[in-house]
Specification:
The protein is 25% helix and 45% strand. A 5-stranded mixed β-barrel has the order 1-2-4-5-6. Helix 1 runs antiparallel to helix 2.
């Protein structure tokens, strides 16, 4: 039996469908994979990617900027304040944001700049762009 998956942001439902696995990165817990029959789970998401391994077709990948994941009865719900599907990411804009955030981190090393760099890195990773950092 496949997982029923929903990836939701405040603006809209980004994805709703069936999957054989969902991979997410949790705060302080690292990457975790959810398969059918997974024990109930609630966790806080790190700023990174969520991979939805579809039952048929290519993976659906999204950049999430924090949020929560809930698993129960073969249903996975990902809630994020900001989430973007890989297919909808403007790569050039993400590269510019990454470069600007990286420069600010080198200059100031403040928490806001580090968070901006993390978000840009997640977006580029979701879009399949390899970074050398």
């Amino acid at each position: 039996m496949p997982l029923q998956v929903e990836l939701v942001s405040p603006e809209r439902v980004l994805f709703s469908g069936e999957a054989s696995m969902v991979i997410a990165r949790t705060l302080g817990g690292g990457d975790i994979a959810f398969l059918p029959g997974h024990a109930p789970f609630i966790g806080a998401l790190d700023t990174w990617t969520v991979t939805v391994r579809l039952t048929s077709g290519p993976d659906e990948i999204a950049a999430v900027h924090g949020g929560f994941v809930s698993v129960s009865n073969d249903r996975v719900i990902v809630l994020s304040d900001v989430a973007e599907l890989a297919s909808q990411i403007d790569v050039e804009r993400a590269r510019r944001a990454h470069a600007a955030a990286e420069a600010k981190v080198m200059r100031d090393d403040d928490a806001e700049a580090v968070a901006a760099l993390s978000r840009a890195h997640a977006r580029l990773n979701a879009a399949g762009v390899l970074l050398h950092s």
